[in-house]
Amino acid sequence: MSQAGAGRTLGSVTIHAEHPFLDPDPDPVRRLRGRLGGTVTLWTAGTDDARAGLTVSSVMVANGDPARVLGLLDPDSDLADALVRTGRGVVQLLGWRHRDLAEAFAGTAPAPGGPFRMADFEPTAWGPRLVDAGTWAGVSVESASPVGWSTLVTCVLDEVSVGDDVAPLVHRRGRYVRPEESR
User: What's the domain count of the chain?
Assistant: First the structure.
């Protein structure tokens, strides 16, 4: 018999207790960020053929007069360029039903014709808005600055529409989970 934790053999296949692809030298900052978790948002900007979007879970809302939303964006993303170019965008909260869309906008799943073809979007004064997003905000870019390997974008909340919070999409430890699984 095998020792506890060392794995067990089924026929000619050994099943190990540890994850076979674990990084032997894990990044503690990345692991901390993964354990924080958060509701997944979709940030969009631009118009017509010059629109861009990105799935973002590193988001914070700061109440005040005016209120603001802060996001950590990939500095090489089309969205970061579009937000700075247009000076405005849409931040929408995604639900469990949007997980395939979230993967497409994150660039981790195929999206033939582009991710905007996977759902209905309508034009707004701030950019394209996901029609079935219950909660969304139209924002104006106040500042963008490099922070670590990201771009910190601070936006003023111009308009906020809060809908039902049914089955939000949560990102925790590198995967999308239902809220009850995020503990």
Answer: 1
